[in-house]
Amino acid sequence: MDLVQLEFDTELTLGKSIENIGYTPLHDTYKKFGRFPMIDPDWNETAFDTIDLMVALRLYNNKHLINSYVSADYKNSSNNILQLRQQDFGLPSREYYLKDQYATELEAYRQYIVDIATFFNSSKVDAETDAADLIKFETYLANVSQSKAETRDPAANYMKYTVSELYTNISSEFEWLRYLNGFFQVVNYTFTNDTELVVHSTEYLIKMTEKVLSTPKRVLANYIIWRFTMNRVSNLPKSIQEIEAKFDKIVYGVQSKPARWKKCVDYTNGFMGMAVGRLFVAKHFPEEAKSMALDMISGIRKAFTGLLNTVPWLNDKTREVAKEKEEAIVEKIGYPEWIMNNTRLNEEYKGLLGNIADDKYFANTVASLRYLCNYELKYILEPVKREFGASPPTVNAYYSGTFNQIVFPAGILQPPFWGRDRPISLNYGAIGMVIGHEISHGFDDRGRLFDKDGNLVKWWDDEVMNGVNTQSENIADNGGIKQSYQAFLHYQKKHGQGEVLPGLEEYTPNHLFFIAFAQQWCVNYRPQALKVAVEEGVHSPSMYRVRGPLANFEEFSKVYKCKSGSSMNPVKKCAVW
């Protein structure tokens, strides 16, 4: 707990005085990478090595050019394995580089690069030239990468190779062994030509390595270090953050930066989420909340089984296997028990102990990044642990296909999603729908590809889907509201109709169920943020997450007496579950 306090205090107190600290820590870090040619005339092209730089940045948890990570093998979910994917980009998605409708955002990105370079005393001419080369290189990578839709099919993209086969099937000139062993040495793991790994972006890696081998060293160095710099601007003085703010306003619609204390909370939770969770749970998550959540989940799971038994498009064979999968779903609620054990919690963060100082803000950030890198890489030495994969304060929930588990952190079991002392109809309408949503993910267009043990196995007859190709989040939204409502009706049969809200007596508990459902998705989008949500988000914009499921749900139309053929009660309704 002392380390959590030190991490937070350092962020808060030194964050306020980073104007005095200046940019020396950043420039010292650049020197470890061989210098940043865009701003440093002493950069030495002869001494530059692409793989050395990729490895150096990977050790700071920066995954540029290649997104490499260790997690459960899709086809053997009890085994951890290295996995390689295409990188993410400086802009929200590949489309921002390729479509004319994002020309404004692409120009803002180019100007951002120029402004940062000239801030560090690069000449305007050199900065413009370097930025143009950098944008051209990244646009090429965007062009050879897959769209978000193309990455959705794990079966189509999964390829297991040995390292030797990387040389044969992707690039014979890229030094794969040197690259992989360069950063895995920190956990004392050595790759050989016979070591297996999984590649999800084969065509991208072929084109990317080909491009890297033919691109001038200055461009490569500028690009890789620029991506690191872009990620670290928020840890630098206000004057350079003002440059970032101009970029964020154009691309994301951000009007102002969050208060420093909020940034400090996010920072500390990001690096020490389980330790922060210990404090959060002690104050905001009593044991009775967990038992109440488990009772609600039990009812909603029974409702989903009822849907499995009645939907007409499932054949009997697939229906039975689907029921087996539902019965095998593991529930993780609130927090992992081990965070209450001081010895175990200290063991979790021993990689940070001794590396966090109360007078070295930027160095603490870099040390934390190295800790996260080492923490993830060490999984390759261990069997898969079906862990609680989110910090307890997280206001979100998720379903894991490879673990076949649903996770509801303590952070989402709070108002407005859930409350101990409010009408039960509000809980079923809000968190109940989220629970049903996550269960449905186990059987959507992606979840149906994984069996009850979390393996990528074909168990679902193709013909039963009858051409349905709906996005998984929309399937889950439509299924989630139905499951939760059915569970709520069952609750009413056992316990009565439920309470109404004082002053709103005209709304029955059934009305309140749908009001609570809609309220949780109240969002006021700025136009730029809406563009990002449409292009990059896995969920539909919030207003459609309300209108779509409700318009497709007959029970909603009955409760609110919607006229047949109206927008909220169309004659033709879409239903998977």
TrEMBL record:
One record GO biological process: protein processing
Cellular component, GO annotation: plasma membrane
Xref: PROSITE patterns: NEPRILYSIN
Residue ranges annotated for the Peptidase M13 C-terminal domain, each copy included: 465-576
Superkingdom assignment: Eukaryota
Organism per entry: Bugula neritina
Record protein name field: Nep4
Keyword Repeat: no
Metal-binding is among the record's keywords: yes
Entry keyword set: Hydrolase, Metal-binding, Metalloprotease, Protease, Zinc
